[in-house]
UniProtKB/TrEMBL annotation, chain A:
One of its GO terms (biological process) is defense response to bacterium. Keywords: Acetylation, Cytoplasmic vesicle, Endosome, Golgi apparatus, GTP-binding, Hydrolase, Lipoprotein, Membrane, Methylation, Nucleotide-binding, Prenylation, Protein transport, Transport. PROSITE patterns: RAB (PS51419), RAS (PS51421), RHO (PS51420). This is Ras-related protein Rab-14. It comes from Phallusia mammillata.
TrEMBL record, chain B:
GO terms for cellular component: recycling endosome. Residues 26-488 form the UDENN domain. Belongs to the DENND6 family. One of its GO terms (molecular function) is guanyl-nucleotide exchange factor activity. The gene is Dennd6a. Pfam families: Avl9. InterPro entries: ABL9/DENND6_dom (IPR018307), DENND6 (IPR024224), Tripartite_DENN (IPR037516). PROSITE patterns: DENN (PS50211). This is Protein DENND6A.
Amino acid sequence: MAAGPYNYSYIFKYIIIGDMGVGKSCLLHQFTEKKFMADCPHTIGVEFGTRIIEVSGQKIKLQIWDTAGQERFRAVTRSYYRGAAGALMVYDITRRSTYNHLSSWLTDARNLTNPNTVIFLIGNKGDLDAQRDVTYEEAKQFADENGLLFLEASAKTGDNVEDVFLETAKKIFQNIQDGSLDLNAAESGVQHKPSARPGQTLNNEQQPKDSNCSC
Amino acid sequence: METAENTDTKEVLSVLPWDQFSEWMHCVCVVTFDLELGQALEFIYPNHIELSESERSNICYLAFPDSNSGCMGDTQYCFRIRKGRSTRRKLTESDYLCSKDCPVTLLKDDTHYYGYVYFRQVRDKTLKRGYFQKSVVLLSSLPYFNFFKDIADIIAPEYFDNGEPCLEAACHDIDQWPSPVPGKPLTLPLMGMILHVRIPTKQDKPGRKLIEASDNVASLAPFTLSSINRIDLFESLQGVLPHIHLLWELVLLGEPLVVMAPSPTVCASTVLALVSSISPLRCYCDYRPFFTIHDSEFKEYTTKTQAPPRVILGVTNPFFAKTFQHWPHIVRIGDMGLGNSGGSNPSLLSNDSKLKKTSKLKALDSKTGVYTKYKPFLKKDKLFLKTFAKGLAGKRPGTAQSTLLERHFLELTQSFIIPLERYLASLMPLQKCISPLRAPPSLKPFRPEEFFQMVENNGPQLTSGTKGDWVGLYKRFIQSPNFEQWFLRRRSEIEAKIMSLHLVALSETDLESWCYEKSEVEIVDMVLRLRQKISMVTSHRLEVPAATLERLNNQITSITDSLPPDLRGILIKA
């Protein structure tokens, strides 16, 4: 593979899914820009975000696909799942309906990704505890029953947001290391860039901090 | 791309009233002496301009000569104040055009305003106090010392004679001016006159005249300004001519320096002359051509609990003699330079030009001279001083002496910069290291020891006749803000250049074959990277040929085409 040795050794593809208005784009924005986006427009189709993180001393570039939550885009979004190494499934703790739809999102995720895709359940808007409509315990039980990682987070305060993205990456990386994720499978959603060796200082990707892609 | 469209719409936007005015000036302030309040801001024009409390107060105090200077008649000088945070604004497209080719010494100042003062004090029996005292202050972010002095000289007397409508008319004229873009011959109408100026560019050869015959306007110019920012070095420094080399070193190193003079005109022009002596290097330390005890930075700059700050201050109030007693370097200028240039000049080479050693009598001693314990690293250029002294004896005109002095400083500073530039060039990655599919290579780190070693063999001795401890001078310089800012600027210029070369290389790469057998994730990564680079061209103002941008956009289209149709649709939309 003659891929360019930028200063990351892997690319992980993530998708963010869930009902409209649960805060998917805000979670992404908080993660890539460390800012809360107050007036977030509806996502049309898909938006991309990227950030380079480090797991076990390896630089990993996250390529995050932020999908539209509106029902009318549901048919289109199916093609986004292909090759995702991680799926972040989001509901809003203050709106029960968004929680109730999780099984249908989970079915999509299971059917359209490979068995090793790490699925992380996120109860967003954790800052609005007074308006809570779904208890932590209930969601935790759902996550356990379905083998999902789970955290409540807040895109507004930034609480747990970092953890969600990093924990997912750690789990994927662990799967690579113990061999359960086959890098050679086209659908793995993970791209190893073996020509990037640590110590090649010339190859630092000079990305200014504000340049995370938000096309 | 979206970014390209943005720039288009910017150009279409029409110019709003005061947009052009604000390219040149912030506002005009009229400061008067109120019997009850003291110095007070009579009005600001244009009247929508807002100034912070501290800006207003500083302007009021700096608009009048400080105590005991008894300036009768008309007095002109310049001051510099800190901008309040709220008044700093975002950079516009026009700011970019104005700064692109601008020498660093002429760049719009983001953190300070320059106040160009025209003060009039005349007897007027009809007034209660018996005196008319008023100042017109042109406030601008542009360090065009000479230019604004001349503008104030045109506007202020008109205002004093005919009142407010004159300012209104003048500001209206200025609002019609083209933007101060370097290198272009500019035609500026002002109160029935036409001014012709050309802002120098950083590519100009030193010594280029303001308007060249080839600019085709010189012949029809009824009024041509002699220079935008040139200070008459000879007139401003004539009291301290034997010490110009030492002073040059102090300014270069950003040493704390105070200039005490009998009038704001003298202290301001001396400070400005010192600051411009290191041109084309910019003095990044704060400097205040005129500073008073009422200044909002007074406490900060005169505290004795810390070492004196790296600033150059011009003062007239005798009170400062005590305040600055502990300062390491003091320039005192007596009555000289007050217009009576017929006075005798100190011999440039004889013994009476020796430095005054700091002693306890210093505060009381008001003799012209430089008071410091500083030992210069470089030896005086005796050859130059001899030539110069000959000119003095032979009554060579002041302007010629000034040009001589300017050229001498320029040669000295250039000789100082050349080794730094040469070393910087050696830190550049080789062109062959720029590989389109790798990240752009970075500049090697600046290693002082390596640089000093280079100076030993290939230092300024190659271009300058001045002898002395050049390495010692560099060692000190490298620790100064003047070096730090110079290096940061040069580094970002070089990095922008590398990025542009990298973009060109990427645009010429056969990415279609690269895509062959690549996974979707990797191809999407490439598309995102290309997009990011294209948006960087706009956000970082990279100079890239239009053809390169077009090729990069085509690259995106062609590699998107290599993806399955459903994904293609997504990427084109997103």
